[in-house]
Specification:
Blueprint: H1 3-9, H2 11-25, H3 42-57, E1 61-65, E2 69-74, E3 81-87, E4 105-107, E5 110-112, H4 116-135, E6 143-149, H5 158-165, E7 171-174, E8 177-178, E9 182-185, E10 187-197, E11 202-207, E12 217-222, E13 238-243, E14 246-252, H6 267-277, H7 286-297, E15 311-312, E16 316-317, E17 319-328, E18 331-340, H8 346-359, E19 363-370, E20 373-374, H9 380-393, E21 400-402, E22 414-416, E23 419-420, E24 441-443, H10 444-463
Parallel strand pairs: 3-6, 3-7, 7-22, 8-23, 9-21
Antiparallel strand pairs: 1-2, 2-6, 4-5, 5-24, 9-20, 10-18, 10-19, 11-12, 11-17, 12-14, 13-14, 15-16, 17-18
Amino acid sequence: MDSIRAYARDEATLSAAKARLSELVRIPSVGAPAEGPFPFGREAARVLEAALSIGQKAGFVTENHDYYCGSVILPGEGEGEVGIICHLDVVPAGSGWIYPPFELTEKDGLLIGRGAEDNKGSVVAALAAMEYLKMSNVKLPFSVRLILGCNEESGMEDLPYFLKVRKAPFFSFTPDSDYPVCHGEKGIAEMELNLGCAGDEILDISGGMASNAVADKAEILLVESCAKRLPEVLPEGISVEKTAAGVFVRAAGKAAHAAKPEGSVNAIGLLASFLTDFEILNQESRQAKAFAYLKKVLADYYGEGLGIAASDEKMGSLTCIGGLIRLQNGCIMQNFNIRYPVSANMQELFEHARKLAEAEGLELTLPRDSKGYYFSPDRPEIAALTRACEEALGKKMQPYVMGGGTYARVFPDTVAFGIGTGEEPTALGPGRGGAHQRDEYIKVDTLALGTEVITRALLELAALKK
């Protein structure tokens, strides 16, 4: 075993990484509205302070970029920098966890807690890699800048601010995907469908945890008179509770990241299908017609119901999920999260979908459209990162494209790179263990491998400068 691999798997290295990860996971760093000097809320600021303190104690130079993000820097001998970009913010935990979401639990080789995989584990792996180079007195021809973002999950407004106050590294990677190297990401758009006013029968409705996750729970509160239309036998995934406040109809699905929706079950779609199939709402009402349309557009994951299906050879098919439904100013609003190939024109797709919704008497808007990126897999830096993976994993690997959205889309000359292995998180049962799921975890082995691969990657990039 060479020195890098031995270091990455050494008990002292792993013990330090676990302690750091525990410190970061304890902070519920879900993005929030600006509060005083904290642009993404107090908890995002608190986790940034904790991470910078860890970096400072490890002997690195640190910078706080006005709480938008921060940097931990390993100085090199050249003027340029290589960036490693991670994020400290997380999606809401939601309910139904077996283990406490904001306390790191180690069990059977798993490190369980919100953000353990996405993306706090990568932070501690990158720090350990930088420590190895520092302790080994390796002279890199560039500085290494670990950038710690605080707004990846809900807008990515942190890195544009960084570019206002600092110069971008000549090349960066974000360890927020799977090995080996993602050389292209689909565009990401969000559409909002206004289903109209709640009407006389709907008292409240809610569903989903985040726009970029398939909703695993949804519920609607109906007036008592709707109870007479309920079937005696409820379909799978549907439950009913009659209360003094009204009749709750709840749907339970299976969550997944919006970039990989296959195999998930959208609870909002289940709820819309139930209301429609059993004619729970007054069939003459606008609301009944709106939910029939919602059933149709949530019936697939490829935008066919919305009329926006698209694909190309480089990036595959467009995907579309319903992430959130809620009442807003008396109107029922449904959010759609769309991942589309770079060859598609989202504005044209939206206009087509808008006209189809308009024909149903509904309003559709496009509040967000983030363009994707595509680099040639033959780019020298991409080849260097691929070699680092092959050295660590002992097998040939090919760069790939994906539907996930990382910092690579908003930062110059950046690709997504590990530290995930692509293995399905099945250790805790279906619907658990993955990014944005309950009981999110990272394996101890994955953390060690991440340290090794990042170390080798920095050395491979250094070799390009010789």
